[in-house]
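B., you asked whether I could sanity-check this one before it goes into the benchmark set. Here's the sequence:
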Amino acid sequence: MTITSRTNPAVIAAASLKEKKYRDKNCAFLIEGKKLFAEAVLSGVTIETVFALASQVPFCRTYRPDGEIITVSESVLEKISTEKSPEGVICVAKYIDKSHNINKIYTMEDFSGEGRRILLLSSLRDPGNLGTVIRSAAAFGCEEILLSADCADLYHPRTVRAAMGTLFRQRVTRVPSLSETVTAMNEGGYRVYAAVLDEKAERLDRMTIDRKTAFIVGNEGHGIDPAVTAAAGRTVYIPMAPGVESLNAAAAAAVFLWQSMVALS
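And here's what the prediction gave me:
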């Protein structure tokens, strides 16, 4: 049977996940499109419900042979979707708690030892930028992303879409105080650099980078929280052509991640 009513309880519940308050209340989010659905299943994400057009049911069965698949009309799919032209498959998935720790408080001991590749994001508010950074982090071998408490929602539809499946595997941790976390990193032997152009800033391409070197990228318009920059105690800049003042936050993050990967390869 195909659900054609846009007021069906399951449809209304799924559509409510377009809003953060309902995502947090239900610890669930939307995954849209065939590719992301397949990536989620292969990554072990817990899928609660799958909605699909009749034409897409055979594809869904390839990845979900035993689970329920709810067949819906195009009108119903549009009700649930956040996209203008939904591809034909939308699923409801549980928050990825195994890899996305919320409000973890780090101490010096967490950063002792040989170190891991870490990128820090300060007040990155745009979900699309956040998703793009997550995708770049996965591509360039970053082992963890640390988010300030006011960064964009990990499960916002634009974040999920921009991350292109890497969200399901990349370790991401939101911390209550990024400045305190940076202090703990310094105490644990890290050298943390804020991407700030000041008189003491080091040129990225002339730095020595090891596994205990970390970079902070800031807000799209206002940069890094001054308290976070002060906690880092070090600054870095990306050399650019004359007349160009700055890069988009996601682009800057990709440059730092790539340079780190090359230095450690």
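One thing to flag: The chain has ten helices and twelve strands. Otherwise nothing jumped out at me.
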